[in-house]
Amino acid sequence: MEHTETTRSGFPRLPAPRLAARIRQRCGLVVLALLPLIANISAAQAPTKSADPIPEPAISAILAAFDKYEVVAIPQGHGMQDLNNFIFSLVRNPAFSEKVNDIEVEFGNSLYQPTLDRYIAGENISFSEVQRVWRKMGQPASGASGFVEQFFPLVRALNQKLPPDRRLRVLAGDSPVDWDQIKSAADVIRLVHRDESIASVMEKEVLSKHRKALMLFGAFHTLHNTPGSAVSLYEKDYPNLTFVISELGIFDTDLASLHDSKFVSWPIPAVARAKGTWLGALDLAHFIPPGIRIDQDCIVHHEFPKALQKPMEELVDAFLYLGPQDLRLREKIPADIALDVSYRTELQRGSAMLGFPNGASETPQEFDQEIVNSAADPLFVIPKPSDANVSDPQLSKAVQTCLEMKTHGKAQ
After folding, report:
1. Which is nearest to 211 in space by CA: 108, 99, 105, 92?
2. Strand, coil or helix: 213
3. Total count of domains within the chain
4. Beta strands 55-57; 270-273: pairing state
């Protein structure tokens, strides 16, 4: 059995400031490198595809998908402002609540589902109380996201303008864990099982009740035919009910001219089916840089495991295009979060607990300066692999931890 990749396994989240980015991107290096990885399964060989993908207007295509499928999964923003804006446009569309009952989100602790239900239903719940849903969970970066902070109040406001039988429910998918009781990375490994929790919520609250749901999750939680992903877990009992849409990631980037884009004639935003097209025939590495992962022998790899080395049409059903890939904007950290000294202190405590001394020691002045400096670079860029990743001190620490655990296991 292998162990999962580090921070660059999926789309990066909020590239600045440094503290939020370090907690978000590097916690996965120590924690996820110790979790069981996808089994090593041989990828099937796919025939060469030459058909061109056919773009459709995105919102109408997604709404139409609900006529055939119980669940439609699209990427969560993870720091991409264009994707945030698209999700808001989709949810606010008057036809959305006619098609959809629930929205399951990555950025919510299911331990607080009762509080979330009351808030979304319009009850008198203080904002500070409902903030626990996304500030105390297995995705620390959610608490530094303006999109997340706006999403829940938006759905609450929408429900106030809808008849009772069309009101939306928001389902928190993250593991039901009291994060105030988390004292170490070992506690995280023992208690946090994110994909299992996501799948369980979907089965219990949506599929078993024959409801319709939008899923807002990072790419690796929603892939088909991938042992360990949330969608693949529940598809064992509920097959062929989920339509998975992927963002384009690093594909079609670093172009010399906008007119060099393969999507220059596509409408914005657009959705295109993957099956039978040249786009669907490409493998995952064309869209997401392969992460750094550590196998059962504590050896570092810079490629996806065999289970993911397959054509995208076997992993997703469609692609979402939001405009020129090199001109995407990144989400900025909101002032109310940046100025929340107590919450910033809590983020630093978590950083220290997980073994990141630089993040824990960052001064308020350094934090503020990172935010100021970030204004000069508003574009969203997915980091590509580099040799520098190999020498990352946190990677060395993860390898050492792996070796210690392996030695300890043999001694028992």
Report:
1. 99
2. strand
3. 1
4. antiparallel
Pick the closest to residue 73 from 103, 113, 115, 37 (CA basis). Answer: 103
DSSP letter for 257, please. S
Note the pLDDT of residue 391.
55
Residue ranges making up the domain that contains 362: 7-411
Q: Where are the alpha helices (DSSP H) in 131-237?
A: 132-135, 146-159, 185-191, 194-205, 219-222, 230-235
Amino acid at 139: Q
Cα separation values, 225 from 60, 169, 215, 315, Å: 27, 28, 17, 6
Query: Residues 22, 85, 174, CA angle at the centre, nearest 5°?
Result: 50
Q: Which CATH number belongs to the domain containing residue 74 in this structure?
A: 3.40.50.11550
Q: Is 382 left (phi over 0), alpha (psi -120 to 50) or beta?
A: beta
Pair of tokens at residue 83 = 């994707």
2 found inside a domain? no
Cα 99 from Cα 113, distance rounded (Å): 23
Total Cβ atoms within 10 A of residue 285: 15
Residue 208 is assigned to a structural domain of this protein:
yes
Find the distance separating the first CA and the last CA of the chain, reported in whole Å.
19
Q: What is the mean pLDDT of residues 26-37?
A: 35
Identify whether the C-beta of residue 90 lies closer than 8 Å to the C-beta of residue 96. Answer: yes
One-letter amino acid at 299 equals I
Cα–Cα dist 355/183, whole Å: 11
In a domain, 233, yes or no: yes
What percentage of the chain exceeds 70 in pLDDT? Answer: 82
Q: What percent of the chain has pLDDT over 90?
A: 58
- Residue 246 token pair: 């992927």
Pairwise CA distance, residues 328 & 94, whole Å: 26
Report the alpha-carbon distance of residue 9 to residue 23 in Å, rounded. 15
Position of tokens 């990141």? 356
HEC secondary structure over 327-372? HCEECCCCHHHHCCHHHHHHHHHHHHHCCCHHHHHCCHHHHHHHHH
CA–CA distance, 138 with 181 (Å, rounded to integer) = 13
- Residue 3: is its pLDDT beyond 60? no
Whether residue 232 contacts residue 223, with contact meaning beta carbons closer than 8 Å, is answered with yes
On whether residue 301 sits in a domain, the answer given is yes
**Predicted local distance difference test score (pLDDT) of residue 32:** 34
* Contact yes or no for 261/312 (Cβ under 8 A): no
pTM for the model stands at 0.82
Average pLDDT value for residue range 218-247: 96
